[in-house]
Write a structure and sequence with these properties.
Layout: E1 2-6, E2 17-22, E3 29-30, E4 35-40, E5 45-49, E6 54-59, E7 66-67, E8 72-77, H1 84-97, H2 99-111, H3 118-127, H4 134-140, H5 149-158, H6 176-184, H7 188-192, H8 202-211, H9 229-247, E9 259-261, E10 271-277, H10 280-296, H11 303-317, E11 323-326, E12 329-332, E13 338-344, E14 347-353, H12 361-369, E15 382-386, E16 403-417, E17 420-434, H13 440-454, H14 457-463
Parallel strand pairs: 13-15, 15-16
Antiparallel strand pairs: 1-8, 2-4, 2-7, 3-6, 4-5, 6-8, 9-12, 10-17, 11-12, 13-14, 16-17
Helix pairs in contact: 2-3, 5-6, 8-9, 10-11, 10-13, 11-12, 11-13
Length: 469
């Protein structure tokens, strides 16, 4: 047995991934579930784990190289297994994925001078031939900068101009270590001028000193962007919120899942909302499914229970939404711990239903009715509210979850009919999201998926019973 290790796809919009590190060496033995490598996409960092035990027999990708999803990056097989068929398949896929790259490398190898390798020749041509490269090479250097995505991110965080950094990676590419080295060697005078650029009122400076707030992290709302005392107090409050969220860090069982690391800037913490409207088929399916299940199986079923099943299916397609944010880390979770906003004895409250995706709709009903508002020890990874049954106002009801879905099924749309105008169900959904973890495109993609699954609500609800009831 054995298989080709391929670049994983970390989301519907991922176009390429970069190898950050091989955590095992070629020829090293691993067990099932052991980490083989760490890779990075446009948004996320992920660990590639061994699907089975064996030896890393071949490595096709070097550190800081970037390839599309599904590209072969290695072969894992038993130490004595014949991998000739796997090698042939991998090499055919690589040739199909990057014929142009293979052609360039072959041309560089053929044209390299005696005593020098292809990499040396390519580096010389990319670098303009060293000191003799001339002014024209210097002028075009900015356009020819080669840097890994991780290096670009570190350069942005540290304020380093990549055109001034000398790369030590493959073919002279700039690595994250190169950026950090350049930042450390930057003149101290650059840093000393930063405080002069901060505009703050005397009262704001005093409050910052009292509250321990770094003024360089505060966005000013005063005249000409000056920082006011209110800005400082808002930043301090945001820092306290972030610290409280950190205390509810993800459970150990989720360590190793995909994560996104970003600077933990409390001042950048805010929520935005995206809204979408279901087409007639999706809206009708939600109502018909609720009524059918109530009549055939369970009288206690409400629209909220059906929405929970549909939302869980959408989260499976968009794992970055089933997540938490704490200490600068966007942590994705395998378990879907649903924070459900409901009314209990007339009072709006929220409790957490652990592993909601593993429950039948009857079990969801029981869990919803047992919510006491405390949610036990489960860390919420997503929030759901039915505006027709409770007033949630689209809030992120339970942090550190990064998103909350509020569905309003109470609307009506007018449709021309034979006898005038017919009123049909109108369902809207709003996703409130933490902008440190998600963006508008993520939110819109999730809402589209949610309504696609709404059209299959009956199938999803019936499927929740199989093997459980």
């Amino acid at each position: 047995m054995g298989y080709i290790v391929r670049m994983p796809k970390l989301g519907l919009e991922m176009k390429e991934g970069t190898l950050l590190e091989w955590t095992v060496a070629e020829g090293e033995e691993v067990a099932e579930g052991d980490q083989l490598a760490e890779i990075e996409s446009e948004k996320s960092v992920a660990e590639v784990e061994a699907r089975e035990g064996g030896v890393l027999r071949r490595v096709y990708l070097e550190v800081d190289q970037t390839v599309p999803p599904s590209t072969p990056i290695g072969i894992l097989a038993a130490p004595d297994a014949d991998i000739s068929d796997l090698e042939a398949e991998a090499e055919a896929d690589l040739a199909e994925e990057a014929p142009d790259v293979a052609g360039v490398e072959a041309e560089a190898a053929a044209s390299a001078p005696e005593g020098g390798g292809a990499a040396e020749s390519a580096a010389a041509s990319a670098g303009g031939g060293g000191a003799a490269g001339g002014a024209s090479a210097d002028a075009s250097a900015g356009a020819d900068v080669k840097a890994s995505p991780r290096a670009e991110k570190r350069a942005e965080e540290l304020g380093v101009d990549l055109s001034t950094v000398e790369g030590t990676g493959p073919q002279g590419a700039i690595t994250a270590d190169d950026v950090e080295t350049a930042a450390e060697s930057a003149p101290a005078s650059d840093a000393s001028t930063e405080p002069a650029d901060v505009k703050a009122s005397p009262r704001a400076e005093k409050r910052a000193e009292e509250l321990g707030v770094d003024l360089s992290t505060v966005e000013g709302t005063g005249p000409q962007g000056a920082i006011t005392a209110d800005d400082v107090e808002a930043a301090a409050e945001a820092q306290e919120t972030a610290a409280a969220a950190a205390e509810s860090a993800p459970a150990a069982r989720d360590t190793g899942e995909i994560r996104r690391i970003v600077p933990d800037d409390a001042a950048a913490y805010r929520h935005e909302r995206a809204t979408a409207v279901a087409d007639e088929a999706g809206a009708t399916a939600l109502f018909e499914t609720t009524e059918a299940v109530r009549s055939a199986f369970e009288e206690r079923v409400t629209m909220t229970d059906v929405l929970a099943v549909v939302a869980s299916a959408a989260l499976a397609d968009h794992p970055i939404v089933n997540a938490t944010y704490a200490e600068g880390t966007h942590q994705l979770h395998e378990s879907r711990n649903l924070a459900l906003a409901v009314d209990i004895e007339g009072e709006p409250t929220a409790g957490v239903i652990p592993d909601a995706d593993e429950l039948s709709i009857t079990e969801l009903v029981e869990a919803r009715q047992d919510l006491g508002g405390d949610g036990g020890e489960a860390v919420p990874t997503f929030t759901l509210a039915n505006a027709g049954e409770t007033d949630a106002e689209g809030r992120l009801v339970n942090e550190p979850a990064v998103a909350a879905l509020e569905v309003d099924p109470t609307g009506q749309r007018a449709v021309p009919g034979n006898d005038g105008v017919d009123l049909r169900p109108l369902v809207t959904a709003s996703l409130t999201y933490d902008t440190r973890a998600l963006d508008g495109a993520d939110a819109e993609a999730f809402l589209e998926s949610f309504f696609d699954h709404a059209e299959r609500a009956s199938e999803l609800v019936l499927g929740s019973y199989r093997g459980r009831e």
